Amino acid sequence: MTFSLADVDAALGALRVHSGADLGSVPRGELMRLMRLVGEVKGAADRLAAAVAGEVARRSTASDGPAGMARQHGFASPEQLVASVTGTAHGEGARLVRAGTALNTPGALGEGLRDGALSVAKADLIAQTLAPLPGDTHDLEARLTRTARAMDYRTLKLLCSREAARFNVAHKESLERRQHQQRSLDITEDTSGMIHVRGTLPPAQGAILLTFLDAQTKHAFQAKRDGTDDDRTATQIRADALIALATHGLDCTSPASGVKATIILRVDADSANADTGLATCDALTTPISLTSLRQLAMDASVMPMLVNAKGEVLDMWREERLFSWAQRMALAERDGGCAKCHAPISHCITHHIRWWSRGGPTNLSNGVLLCVRCHTQVHRDGWDIEVDTNNHVWFTPPAAVDPHQHRILGGLAALTTA
Asked: Comparing C-alpha atoms, which of 244, 279, 239 is closest to residue 259?
């Protein structure tokens, strides 16, 4: 591979016009542009570092033995050598080696790195997603690479997790069985009398606890905004909710404690009919198997929902200002939580796209789930939201955020490469 500074020079050229600027007096819009330019320089430099790290790894294979480059310089692996020379942690050295290896490997991932469309971090995430998957992953590699070009890292991480599960359903069920065997809960008491709780739960069962605790936390914070004198932190609210749950369990004839919450599981019709596939759960970022869905569906607090290819469930036109529970459940099927940032559904409110006070109807085509932070941002900054004929949610940022105002796909549709 040819070592070239062309990308670095181009990125630095655009940045040099800002040399000497007083950052404290730079307008916000210009500061955002400056941040993007700095990111381009860093991305170009990271790709150069990855190219060199990949060559170091190529000369440090196990077959080279003591004659390998890393061993000759006193390191057990090329990752250690790269981390030491670049002054970074071992994990970053490993990331550069993996990205460098991808650069020299034919395929969409290497191409995305070479043309600058992917950052080293994104490329490494995709590479780690593909590595344990069996069979031919070239099509998935191409789809992930194509989608990652216009996606932030956090959303890409969610997408990779879901696509990896969809790619190998049999592996997912086997993994869930192992996770179930690994469940544990340790409770210890220290010398001061404080009780320490530490546990590990498999995803499907953990979703039950997550949904309950999230509902209690959201309710408490909502009450605080409404004027309730409650100075508890989120961690204290969760602790109190867990104790309330245990207290209720000791006296099952008493009224239920806490705020009622429903766990939503969704599965597409094709998977259900074929009796194989995956389901998604609002409380989890990764899909679960149909086996886990059936186990959870026996609980009254769990709602399994069958959806079509567009994610449509129902549409109910109402005169009331507030969305009904059924409408909110339907929006959950489409948005999967906050349609903008993908926060859990328990953190969300139902927002009228065209404000109810301005004549906006209370129906699904005018509704979207948003977390409190994104809801505030949409109102404050003037983001546009629309639902297209395919039941997809689109966000258009204001010019102050993106001068070109490129539309951003939201909801569950953003978490698939299809």
From this structure: 244
